[in-house]
Structure formats: structure tokens, C-alpha cells
Amino acid sequence: MSIIIDPSAHLSTSIRWGEFCVVGADVEIGPDCEIGHHVVIAAGTKIGAGVRIDDGAILGKLPMRAANTAVTKDQPLPPAQVGDGAIIGAHVVIYRGATLGQRVLIADLSTVRENVTIGDFTIVGRGVAIENACTIGRYCKLETNVYITAYSTLGDRVFVAPGALTSNDNFVGRTEERFKHFKGVTVGRGARIGVGAVILPGKTVGDDALIAAGAVLTSDAPARQIMAGVPARAFRAVPSEQLLDAQNWPDVKRTS
Fold first, then answer.
1. pTM of the entire predicted model
2. Considering only the top CATH level, what class is 131-256?
3. How far apart are CA 115 and CA 99, in angstroms?
């Protein structure tokens, strides 16, 4: 078996290894993990118990910084951390400084950047990109090809349908003024974003709000309202039976 393991790594004896893996200095891997072929685990990465990592994944990657980047900073980053029972898909890239909670699933070809925290039981679908300095809550679901821009916050139980996009730069990359105003999106607890919706920089989606498919949100979305159209306007209230607190889920803590 062709595996390169730094002597300083702390590894459980019950790990199942694929071929051609590389494990860096001071890596920690808990018991009962399954590591696929061609997996790279960079220095310092901490992986809990019962984690599955599929072929070609990279964990703990250092960020690249272009000369004219607006959001990537030279900074010391803590090691990447992956919670117990997580599943990391094929060719996923998890950057150093990312923290994944328990039972998180990151599907094939997705990217999780530095300074990102993802809460327990959240599902990140195929081809999703979560940029740096984002917080994603518990029990969220981000479906295929979702893009979460840097400096965004998503609350617990947020649902984002395929192809939804967010942005953090109202100046679209022009003039120095833009550096004063970068701001991601804020999505409240239990909010839902439809297929192909676009959320513009700095906008807030209130708790339990619903952004309709194809909508372009140019203003804040009030809590428990359906927003539809281009630009999006309030359409009607979210039906009471669809509110998060109306669901009989054991993890949902009622807010009223």
C-alpha cells in the first residue's frame, strides 16, 4: 500500500486506507474512519471518529492569494477540523481554517474555504462553493451548484435550491470604494431560497422567508414573507403550516 504518513501524525489503528494517500505533520484522525484513494490530508488537520473521505479529496489546503484579490488575506489559520461521522465526497477541497460539525455531508466537487464554520447535520450538495469567512448553521441544505459568497451567514434549517447565487460586491470589481462596502448575505432561521434565485450584496432574508425561483432580491426580505419577481417584491405571507416552528421535528426549538 502506497501511503505517505508524517511521523508526527496521530492516527487510530482502525482506519481503512485507500492507495496513494498523503498525511501531513501533526494530523489527527479518529477511529473507524474510511479514507479513499489519492486523498491528501494537510498538516494539522483534525478528523473525528467515523468519518468517510472519498477519492481525491484534499483537507486542510492553504488558500492561494492573487496580487489583486479583495477578500483573501495573509493570516495565520487554525487547522481544518472535521466532526464525527462526517462524509466528504470525491474531489472535495476543504481549506485550512474550516470547521465542519458532526454528521456534515460535503458532496462531490464542492469547496469549503478558510474561516468557514458549518453546523452539525448540514448537507452541502454537489459542486457547491462556500467562500471564506462564512457561517452556515445546523441542519441546512445547500443543493447542487449553490454559490455562497464571502462574509455570509446562514441560520439553522436554511434551504437553498440548486443554482442559487449570492454576491458581496455592489461595485462589481471597480473603484477603490468597493473595499469599504464588501458585505455578504444574511439568511435567517428556516428561510428558503428557490432554484436560480439571486441575492444581491448585503441583503438580509428574514426568518422563515421564502425567495421564489428565479427571483432577484434587491432589498431585504421580511420574515415569513414570500418574495417573487425581478426585482423581487413581497407576494404574500408564508402559510402558517409551512413555518419552521410548525414542523414536528425534535431538533426545532420553538421561538414563540
1. 0.93
2. mainly beta
3. 8
Name the β-bridge partners of 254.
none
Q: In the beta sheet, which residues pair with residue 210? A: 192, 226
Length of the chain in residues, anyone? 256
Q: CA 141 → CA 96, 148, 238, distances in Å?
A: 23, 12, 19
Q: What is the pLDDT of residues 184-225, one digit of tens each?
A: 999 999 999 999 999 999 999 999 999 999 999 999 999 999
Q: By the 8 A CB rule, do 203 and 221 touch?
A: yes
Alpha carbons 124 and 134: distance in angstroms, whole number: 14
Q: Where are the domains positioned within the chain?
A: 131-256
Pairing of strands 186-187, 153-154: parallel
- CA dist 227 and 183 (Å) reads 21
> What is the Cα–Cα distance from 20 to 1, expressed in whole angstroms?
7
Output phi, psi for 179, to 5 deg: -65, -15
Residues whose CB falls within 8 Å of the CB of residue 253, separated by 6 or more in sequence, listed in order: none
- Reported confidence tier of residue 67, pLDDT bands at 50, 70, 90: low
Q: How far is residue 76's CA from residue 58's CA, in Å, rounded to a whole number?
A: 19
Contacts of 68 (CB under 8 A, 6+ apart): none
